[in-house]
UniProtKB/TrEMBL annotation:
Transmembrane segments: none annotated. Pfam families: Uricase. This is Uricase. It catalyses: urate + O2 + H2O = 5-hydroxyisourate + H2O2. Its EC number is 1.7.3.3.
Length: 279
């Protein structure tokens, strides 16, 4: 049991310069005894309102240097404070606020919400067990308008899809990875590096791109690049929900449409998922 969607903004001031972290936290516990379920005995139950208040107090006292470290703080607090807690799991996701720039100059106290992917993390721990930390990015919408195709696939009497050697590749990406033994990691730096790997593997070189023969191959390229460059990542999961576009037939309008006006196919949409880990 636990508390979901604990939302708050943590404001940190360094003189006139302000820093913000707006997050949503879910904190779930498993107790050493199920007596509240079986017997109606609530003597060990930590109220969910108390869970919420603990999260807010930890944010006030410790700040949020990174989502991962804040999630670890929450796990450590419940494990060290309450002997009846056998397991704790914490999920934290961030609202994507970025500092506003005016003529290239960073503003000291103004921010803009940029929907270029939502950062999240999870931390979980069993009593007398290791602390396990996951991190990720979701709702990251990506598109490239060429250097993508889909050919040579299996065909039978139910196949109507034509082969394409030049198409738009577009999708919403979910990526989640697990760390090994958590030491003094710079979680912010690692997250930014992985995000850069995702964008590089998806797009290819900026001057020419890189051909993608399928959504599946693009997913694998993302995973392989992350594992090759970020040694702290042990397992990485990628889900790419595809958005397809159809070329509008403008012959009746007396126009030739050379893939210049397209409409998205709202449903059904495709999805590719893969989990890859080190040996």
């Amino acid at each position: 049991y636990g508390k979901n969607t604990i939302k708050f903004l943590r404001l940190h001031r360094e003189g006139k310069k302000h820093f913000v972290k707006e997050v949503e936290v879910c904190a779930h516990l498993r107790l050493t005894s199920p007596q509240e379920y079986l017997e109606g005995n609530n003597s060990l139950v930590i109220p969910t309102d108390t869970i919420k208040n603990i999260v807010l107090v930890l944010a006030k006292k410790n700040g949020i240097s990174s989502l991962e470290e804040f999630a670890i703080d929450i796990c450590n607090h419940f494990m060290t404070t309450f002997c009846q807690v056998a397991y704790v799991k914490t999920y934290v996701q961030e609202v994507p606020w970025q500092r506003l720039h005016e003529d290239g100059v960073p503003h000291i106290h103004s921010f803009i919400c940029v929907p270029d992917g939502i950062r999240f993390c999870e931390a979980e721990q069993c009593r007398n067990g290791p602390l396990i930390v996951f991190a990720g990015i979701k709702d990251l919408k990506l598109m490239k308008t060429t250097q993508s195709g889909f050919e040579g696939f299996y065909k039978n009497e139910h196949t109507t899809l034509p082969e394409r050697h030049d198409r738009i590749l577009c999708g919403e990406l979910f990526c989640k990875w697990s760390y090994g033994e958590c030491k003094d990691f710079d979680f912010n730096c690692i997250w930014k590096k992985i995000r850069e790997c995702i964008l590089e593997a998806f797009a290819g070189p900026p001057d020419c791109g890189e051909y993608s023969p399928s959504y599946q191959k693009t997913v694998n390229c993302i995973q392989m690049l992350v594992l090759s460059r970020v040694s702290q990542v042990q397992i990485i999961e990628v889900v790419l929900n595809n958005t397809f576009y159809n070329v509008v037939d403008m012959k009746n309008l007396g126009l030739t449409n050379d893939k210049e006006v397209l409409v998205p196919v709202e449903a059904p949409y495709g999805s590719c998922a893969c989990t890859l880990g080190r040996k």
